[in-house]
């Protein structure tokens, strides 16, 4: 049984080491690198970091951003008005050690951070995911977050993804989906988003290819 614990500054070097270990074999267009200062600040000043530990060994971590006034805020990408920015939480970077993958830890860390954001009094959770980052996209959608935008960011395309923490995830069945298109079909994704659709689920995902995204009208 795995237990998710909030990390502190004694874990900083292990978080940084795991981050660089994951970056070493990742496609740089799919995964954004972070600075040591980013992790230090998110341990206390502007967020929380949660980890899965085996005694003193860090197996996985997930970052929750709780931006303060004046901090970088993903709400700007979503066009949120200034008075809503204080309600935003970031579901930020996650990393799982290579030999520990396939145990749904990224999904569990995502759900845990959404609950922690609620506890911290935030009402809107936002994140970005590269359409070709199969594992992250699947885990984020499985946790009930939905695709609300697509833009050039961090050196490539990124889905802009949101969850309203005071509401249940949008209910849907596979046969309710009105449109399907590959996550990397940017032209169709842009067209559907412009027409008022949101991406809520996925199918046909493999380790080698991005999944199809299922779209529903927002209203």
Instruction: Enumerate the strands of the largest sheet in spatial order, edge to edge or round the barrel.
Output: 1-2-3-4-5-7-6
Please, what is the average pLDDT? 91
Helix content: 10-25%
The helix/strand order is EHHEEEHEHEEEHEE
**Helix/sheet category:** alpha+beta
List low-confidence stretches.
Answer: none
The total of beta strands comes to 10
Largest sheet: 7 strands, mixed
User: What is the alpha-carbon Rg in Å?
Assistant: 17 Å
Tell me the number of helical segments per DSSP (H or I, 4 or more residues long).
5
Shape: globular
State which percent range the strand residues make up: 25-35%
Distance between the termini: 40 Å
Oligomer state of the chains in this structure? single chain
Task: Report on this structure.
With 219 residues, the protein is of the alpha+beta class. The protein is globular, with a radius of gyration of 17 Å. Strand 4 (88-96), helix 3 and strand 5 form a beta-alpha-beta unit. The model has no long low-confidence stretch (mean pLDDT 91). The N and C termini lie far apart (40 Å). The chain is 24% helix and 32% strand.
Q: Would you spell out the secondary-structure blueprint of this structure?
A:
Elements: E1 4-6, H1 12-24, H2 36-42, E2 47-54, E3 57-65, E4 88-96, H3 105-119, E5 124-129, H4 134-142, E6 146-153, E7 156-164, E8 179-182, H5 186-194, E9 197-203, E10 212-217
Parallel strand pairs: 4-5
Antiparallel strand pairs: 1-2, 2-3, 3-4, 5-7, 6-7, 8-10, 9-10
